[in-house]
UniProtKB/TrEMBL annotation:
The DHHC domain is required for palmitoyltransferase activity. One of its GO terms (cellular component) is fungal-type vacuole membrane. It is an enzyme of class 2 (transferase). InterPro entries: Palmitoyltrfase_DHHC (IPR001594), PFA4/ZDH16/20/ERF2-like (IPR039859). The keyword Methyltransferase does not apply. It catalyses: L-cysteinyl-[protein] + hexadecanoyl-CoA = S-hexadecanoyl-L-cysteinyl-[protein] + CoA. GO terms for biological process: vacuole fusion, non-autophagic. This is Palmitoyltransferase. PANTHER family: PALMITOYLTRANSFERASE ZDHHC16. The keyword Metal-binding does not apply. It is found in: Membrane. The lineage of its organism: Eukaryota, Fungi, Dikarya, Ascomycota, Saccharomycotina.
Amino acid sequence: MSRLTNCLGVVSQVFPRVSVTLLVTWSFWAVLFKVILLLPPFAGCSGVFFGIVLTFVWAMCLTTYYCVLFVGPGSPTEFPMLVVPGYSEDEDGNSNMAGEAMHPPERFVSHSMMVKGNGGFRFCSKCKCWKPDRSHHCSACERCILRMDHHCPWFGECIGFRNYRYFMQFLAYSEVYLVLVTWVSCWVLVQFFVNNRWSVELFSFHVLFVFCLGLVFTLSMALFTGFTLYQVLRNKTTIESYEMQRYRRRRHNVGNVFDLGWRENWRVVMGQHWWQWLLPVTYSYDVGGQCEDADLYANGLCFPLETEVASGLRLVERLERVSGELERGLLRR
Ligand SMILES: [Zn+2]
Ligand SMILES: [Zn+2]
């Protein structure tokens, strides 16, 4: 049974990757060899220019696609400070650890916002690790994913903290690519069958298939890209858009505490400069100043909070510390 499950797992990863690569490359080949290099009007400068633009967009589609796969979403299990190796559970779900042994590292606690329904810190018993804010366990990948957005069947991979920007770039380049191939194949079909411009011997069914598939994918990708862009500007993951989050000391729904305003939300995910938005180069968010926990922010273990929420949380923590100290002082007397 486990062999069958493993087999299905491999197929669900390999099949979409091979299909997407073949589909994108076949449509590129069809437009290049059956339209640009074959039909007379494309022999001039405009044809060369169109060919160069199409080649660039096609290459960027595949590059960003494989960046999503090779970079991966990132997992909290890669950080030893979050892993509890000795953890185990009996059949009733009772853990073998309690008290201090089962307390997350202090450095992690001070930055955590999200909690479980009972107010405790989030822990994954399958991965035996503490779950940073916005991370979730993916049953398809069988591991926890940092800032998990969704498990994408077109990649056979999760979209999360590290590969989200490449995913966004892939969506944008694919949409441009689809518009280009659909438009050019539509124009060629009109010239053949409405204007009777060329003899039917020059017609290729590949162009017809590119147009049909291109039309379907252009429309569906446009909707999905629009939705993803909207999510980026609100700094919300797909999971967060349909699941209510529980925040520490503010367990009722206070909205999205990670929403920093659309400009900053865009920069957090896509980078500070235009070339980081367009090119698949490495980028990690810089919280600025002399933050001693900058590495936690850069690795997706914690996230900048909306100013009002952050200052409110700091105030509550300060009050709790003072009241605790007062209580201890009174008890000593
Ligand atoms: Zn997990
Ligand atoms: Zn997954």
